[in-house]
Amino acid sequence: MILKEAFRMQNHLNDISNQAVMFLADTSNVTRTKEEHLRNKSNSKAENETVEIKRQTDMAADKVIELYLDVLEERDKLSKAIGKAKALADIDIDAAIASNKAKQEAKSRFENLSRLKSSETTTNGKDFLINAEGNQTPYIYTIRSVSTIDFDRDAVKGIIRRLQRETDEVSSKIDLLNVTLEVDYTPKYDIGDTFEDAYDKYYR
User: Fold this and answer.
1) CA–CA dist 29, 22 (Å, integer)
2) Residue pLDDT tens, the chain, 204 long
3) Longest C-alpha distance within the chain, in Å?
4) CA distance 160 to 114
Protein backbone atom coordinates (compact mmCIF):
# COMPACT_ATOMS: atom_id res chain seq x y z
CA MET A 1 0.00 0.00 0.00
CA ILE A 2 1.06 3.58 -0.55
CA LEU A 3 1.91 5.92 2.31
CA LYS A 4 -1.44 7.76 2.15
CA GLU A 5 -3.33 4.47 2.50
CA ALA A 6 -1.03 3.42 5.34
CA PHE A 7 -1.88 6.59 7.27
CA ARG A 8 -5.60 5.94 6.71
CA MET A 9 -5.17 2.38 7.96
CA GLN A 10 -3.25 3.67 10.98
CA ASN A 11 -6.15 5.97 11.88
CA HIS A 12 -8.63 3.13 11.29
CA LEU A 13 -6.76 0.79 13.63
CA ASN A 14 -6.70 3.57 16.22
CA ASP A 15 -10.49 3.86 15.91
CA ILE A 16 -11.00 0.12 16.38
CA SER A 17 -8.73 -0.01 19.43
CA ASN A 18 -10.45 3.04 20.95
CA GLN A 19 -13.85 1.38 20.51
CA ALA A 20 -12.51 -1.82 22.09
CA VAL A 21 -11.36 0.22 25.10
CA MET A 22 -14.79 1.85 25.37
CA PHE A 23 -16.46 -1.58 25.19
CA LEU A 24 -14.26 -2.98 27.95
CA ALA A 25 -14.76 0.13 30.09
CA ASP A 26 -18.53 -0.45 30.14
CA THR A 27 -19.17 -2.70 33.15
CA SER A 28 -22.37 -4.08 31.63
CA ASN A 29 -20.33 -5.55 28.74
CA VAL A 30 -17.86 -7.44 30.92
CA THR A 31 -20.11 -8.78 33.69
CA ARG A 32 -23.09 -11.11 33.89
CA THR A 33 -25.92 -10.36 36.29
CA LYS A 34 -28.31 -12.86 37.83
CA GLU A 35 -31.34 -11.97 39.90
CA GLU A 36 -32.58 -14.37 42.54
CA HIS A 37 -36.29 -13.90 43.18
CA LEU A 38 -36.66 -15.37 46.68
CA ARG A 39 -40.46 -15.55 46.76
CA ASN A 40 -40.54 -18.62 49.03
CA LYS A 41 -39.31 -16.59 52.00
CA SER A 42 -42.44 -14.50 51.91
CA ASN A 43 -44.84 -17.03 50.38
CA SER A 44 -44.34 -20.71 51.24
CA LYS A 45 -46.45 -21.73 48.25
CA ALA A 46 -44.34 -19.77 45.75
CA GLU A 47 -41.20 -21.04 44.06
CA ASN A 48 -37.90 -19.23 43.95
CA GLU A 49 -36.59 -18.20 40.52
CA THR A 50 -33.20 -17.23 39.13
CA VAL A 51 -33.25 -14.87 36.17
CA GLU A 52 -30.18 -13.98 34.10
CA ILE A 53 -30.31 -10.40 32.88
CA LYS A 54 -29.80 -10.21 29.13
CA ARG A 55 -26.97 -7.98 28.03
CA GLN A 56 -27.33 -5.44 25.23
CA THR A 57 -24.48 -7.07 23.29
CA ASP A 58 -23.61 -10.64 22.48
CA MET A 59 -19.91 -9.86 22.08
CA ALA A 60 -17.76 -11.86 24.48
CA ALA A 61 -15.39 -9.79 26.60
CA ASP A 62 -12.57 -12.36 26.16
CA LYS A 63 -12.87 -12.05 22.38
CA VAL A 64 -12.87 -8.25 22.52
CA ILE A 65 -9.70 -8.41 24.63
CA GLU A 66 -8.19 -10.68 21.97
CA LEU A 67 -9.26 -8.24 19.24
CA TYR A 68 -7.84 -5.28 21.15
CA LEU A 69 -4.44 -6.93 21.63
CA ASP A 70 -4.30 -7.99 17.99
CA VAL A 71 -5.11 -4.49 16.76
CA LEU A 72 -2.36 -3.10 19.00
CA GLU A 73 0.06 -5.55 17.41
CA GLU A 74 -1.11 -4.56 13.91
CA ARG A 75 -0.67 -0.89 14.76
CA ASP A 76 2.89 -1.63 15.87
CA LYS A 77 3.66 -3.55 12.65
CA LEU A 78 2.21 -0.77 10.52
CA SER A 79 4.07 1.98 12.39
CA LYS A 80 7.36 0.17 11.86
CA ALA A 81 6.57 -0.36 8.16
CA ILE A 82 5.74 3.34 7.77
CA GLY A 83 9.01 4.24 9.50
CA LYS A 84 11.00 2.04 7.09
CA ALA A 85 9.22 3.55 4.09
CA LYS A 86 9.88 7.10 5.30
CA ALA A 87 13.56 6.28 5.74
CA LEU A 88 13.74 5.60 1.98
CA ALA A 89 12.32 9.02 1.06
CA ASP A 90 14.64 11.71 -0.30
CA ILE A 91 13.51 14.09 2.47
CA ASP A 92 12.85 13.67 6.17
CA ILE A 93 9.04 13.77 5.97
CA ASP A 94 8.37 14.37 9.67
CA ALA A 95 10.97 17.15 9.87
CA ALA A 96 9.63 18.71 6.66
CA ILE A 97 6.08 18.72 8.03
CA ALA A 98 7.22 20.32 11.30
CA SER A 99 9.27 22.92 9.43
CA ASN A 100 6.38 23.72 7.11
CA LYS A 101 4.04 24.20 10.06
CA ALA A 102 6.46 26.64 11.69
CA LYS A 103 6.90 28.56 8.43
CA GLN A 104 3.13 28.77 7.89
CA GLU A 105 2.70 30.18 11.40
CA ALA A 106 5.46 32.71 10.71
CA LYS A 107 3.85 33.66 7.39
CA SER A 108 0.55 34.29 9.15
CA ARG A 109 2.23 36.59 11.68
CA PHE A 110 4.08 38.48 8.93
CA GLU A 111 0.81 38.90 7.01
CA ASN A 112 -0.70 40.57 10.07
CA LEU A 113 2.40 42.76 10.35
CA SER A 114 2.20 43.77 6.67
CA ARG A 115 -1.34 45.05 7.15
CA LEU A 116 -0.26 47.61 9.76
CA LYS A 117 -0.41 51.23 8.60
CA SER A 118 0.84 54.53 9.94
CA SER A 119 -1.86 56.43 11.79
CA GLU A 120 -2.59 59.79 13.31
CA THR A 121 -5.05 60.61 16.08
CA THR A 122 -5.97 63.77 17.94
CA THR A 123 -7.20 64.07 21.49
CA ASN A 124 -7.65 66.89 23.96
CA GLY A 125 -5.30 67.63 26.82
CA LYS A 126 -5.90 69.81 29.86
CA ASP A 127 -3.48 72.09 31.64
CA PHE A 128 -3.55 75.20 33.84
CA LEU A 129 -2.23 78.74 33.53
CA ILE A 130 -2.04 81.69 35.85
CA ASN A 131 -4.23 84.54 34.59
CA ALA A 132 -3.70 88.28 35.05
CA GLU A 133 -5.43 88.17 38.42
CA GLY A 134 -3.02 85.47 39.58
CA ASN A 135 -5.63 82.73 39.58
CA GLN A 136 -5.03 79.23 38.23
CA THR A 137 -7.22 78.70 35.16
CA PRO A 138 -7.66 75.45 33.20
CA TYR A 139 -7.37 75.40 29.44
CA ILE A 140 -7.82 72.73 26.75
CA TYR A 141 -5.27 72.02 24.06
CA THR A 142 -4.87 69.53 21.19
CA ILE A 143 -2.65 66.45 21.40
CA ARG A 144 -1.67 65.03 18.02
CA SER A 145 -0.37 61.43 18.15
CA VAL A 146 1.43 60.05 15.10
CA SER A 147 2.33 56.34 14.86
CA THR A 148 4.54 55.20 12.01
CA ILE A 149 5.55 51.64 11.13
CA ASP A 150 9.07 50.88 12.25
CA PHE A 151 9.93 48.17 9.75
CA ASP A 152 10.38 47.70 5.99
CA ARG A 153 6.93 46.71 4.71
CA ASP A 154 8.28 45.70 1.29
CA ALA A 155 10.86 43.45 2.93
CA VAL A 156 8.15 41.79 5.03
CA LYS A 157 6.03 41.21 1.92
CA GLY A 158 9.05 39.65 0.26
CA ILE A 159 9.51 37.32 3.24
CA ILE A 160 5.83 36.31 2.97
CA ARG A 161 6.25 35.43 -0.72
CA ARG A 162 9.42 33.45 0.01
CA LEU A 163 7.82 31.47 2.83
CA GLN A 164 4.80 30.73 0.61
CA ARG A 165 7.07 29.39 -2.16
CA GLU A 166 9.07 27.25 0.26
CA THR A 167 6.03 25.75 2.00
CA ASP A 168 4.28 25.11 -1.33
CA GLU A 169 7.36 23.31 -2.65
CA VAL A 170 7.67 21.10 0.43
CA SER A 171 3.91 20.40 0.48
CA SER A 172 4.08 19.27 -3.15
CA LYS A 173 6.95 16.90 -2.33
CA ILE A 174 5.07 15.45 0.62
CA ASP A 175 1.87 15.06 -1.45
CA LEU A 176 3.86 13.19 -4.10
CA LEU A 177 5.47 10.90 -1.53
CA ASN A 178 2.06 10.16 -0.02
CA VAL A 179 0.87 8.64 -3.31
CA THR A 180 4.12 7.06 -4.54
CA LEU A 181 6.03 5.80 -1.50
CA GLU A 182 5.28 2.10 -0.92
CA VAL A 183 4.76 0.75 2.59
CA ASP A 184 5.50 -2.96 3.02
CA TYR A 185 2.42 -3.94 5.01
CA THR A 186 -0.43 -6.35 4.30
CA PRO A 187 -3.55 -5.26 6.17
CA LYS A 188 -5.41 -7.80 8.27
CA TYR A 189 -8.41 -5.54 8.78
CA ASP A 190 -10.38 -3.85 6.00
CA ILE A 191 -10.43 -0.08 5.99
CA GLY A 192 -14.23 -0.06 5.81
CA ASP A 193 -14.74 -2.44 8.73
CA THR A 194 -16.43 -1.13 11.85
CA PHE A 195 -15.47 -2.39 15.30
CA GLU A 196 -18.39 -4.83 15.11
CA ASP A 197 -17.35 -5.99 11.60
CA ALA A 198 -13.81 -6.71 12.80
CA TYR A 199 -15.17 -8.71 15.73
CA ASP A 200 -17.55 -10.70 13.54
CA LYS A 201 -14.94 -11.49 10.86
CA TYR A 202 -12.08 -12.56 13.07
CA TYR A 203 -13.34 -13.32 16.57
CA ARG A 204 -16.94 -14.51 16.37
Assistant:
1) 10
2) 999 999 999 999 999 999 999 999 999 899 988 989 998 889 988 999 988 888 888 899 999 999 999 999 999 999 999 999 999 999 999 999 999 999 999 999 999 999 999 999 999 999 999 988 889 999 999 999 999 999 999 999 999 999 999 999 999 999 999 999 999 999 999 998 999 999 999 888
3) 119
4) 9
